[in-house]
Amino acid sequence: MPLVFAxxxxxxxxxxxxxxxxxxxxREPFFAAYAELKRKLDAARLDALVVIAADHFTNFxxxxxxxxxxxxxxxxxxxxxxxxxxxIEPTEVPGDxxxxxxxxxxxxQEVDLSYSEELVFDHGVMVPLHLLTPDxxxxxxxxxxxxxxxxxxxxxRCYELGRALRRATAGLxxxxxxxxSGGLSHWPAVPASGRVNAxxxxxxxxxxxxxxxxxLVAYRDDEIDAAxxxxxxxxxxxxxxAGAMEGRTSEKLIYLPIPxxxxxxxxxxxxxxxxxx
Length: 277
Ligand SMILES: [Fe+2]
Hints:
This protein is α/β, with parallel strands linked by helices and about 280 residues long. It has helices at about 15, 25-45, 85, 95-105, 125-130, 155-170, 200-210, 215, 220-230, 235-245, and strands spanning about 5-10, 50-55, 70, 75-80, 90-95, 115, 140-145, 175-180, 250-260, 265-270. The strands form two sheets. Strands 6-3-7-2-8-1-10-9 form an eight-stranded mixed sheet. α6 packs across α10. Fe (ii) ion binds near residues 11 and 182. Fe (ii) ion binds near residues 11, 124, 182, 231 and 234.
């Protein structure tokens, strides 16, 4: 059936690892928005959640850097980071190999995907799952987009990746949702870490909420690097979700710069019944 849930959110390690370093005026509304997203996800009664995330040199390195990679495993482990850093204990996340293979086969009609049966999860997947599916019983199908190092798939290809996911899942009987995990502007592991470009974030978020395909696919790497920092390249995960919604709009649950987390806290959920004008 058509996707029954779509959303996008941040995954910065500070969200869980430095949760209480943010002032209450920032922390409370941000985690309230994550709780609201969890309620909406629970209400969707999903059989599986496709998580479109960035990898952080966890599964891939310069010897083999796929533009897109889907996980075909029945189980995953994560996070790879220490629990003292992330404040998330190592755990097992269920996959669904049969469903993942069906999705991959459908998507490959339109997008060249790599695949792997041996992926592990870092904070890019584990931070949102820790907050949204803490009991880790919902099967996950991960799709990684290379957001780290060029050449990367351009924004238009990421939008098409999302469209291919939509078409690949439409004929399946399962209730499937999609979550994009990444961005928006941030400067991880560089001297500018902690900087947030709220104006750029809001401009991107506006295009995402409207599902303004023309604007979303026009983002170029140099523009992203200059205004959104190296972490800004992760807007690809949001752009893929916009493609998966095929013209449908989204609702902002929160946007709030949180310097202690080194990112603007940003969460949006798709209005799957509405189409952009
Ligand atoms: Fe990231």
